[in-house]
Design the sequence.
């Protein structure tokens, strides 16, 4: 099945699909209802991420996203983590690969 998010380019469509997977990981690791997930949530202050949860989160991210690794020393929010995952997934694509 192939579809495109209305008004978006291919990259935007892929990011939306990745967001759905990412949110599933967040829900599983932190026990947050999908409707309550906001990418602006802070890992430590809002989600109370411990070292144990951080490792679980890292393991699930690697499992869902082809071995992706996140530098949690640099990531403060869920958005920071998501951006790192997206950047890693598309690092080998030539610039303009998703342009219209």
Sequence:
């Amino acid at each position: 099945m192939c579809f495109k998010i209305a008004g978006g380019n291919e990259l935007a469509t892929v990011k939306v699909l990745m967001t759905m997977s990412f949110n599933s990981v967040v829900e599983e690791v932190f026990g947050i209802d999908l409707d309550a997930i906001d990418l602006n949530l802070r890992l430590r202050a809002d989600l109370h991420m411990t070292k144990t949860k951080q490792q679980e989160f890292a393991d699930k991210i690697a499992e869902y996203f082809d071995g992706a690794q996140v530098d949690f020393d640099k990531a403060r929010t869920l958005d920071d983590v998501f951006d790192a995952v997206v950047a890693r997934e598309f690092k080998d694509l030539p610039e303009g690969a998703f342009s219209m």
Q: What stands out?
A: Confidence is low (pLDDT under 50) at residues 1-6. The radius of gyration is 14 Å. Residues 15 and 86 are 7 Å apart (CA to CA). The longest helix spans residues 10-30.
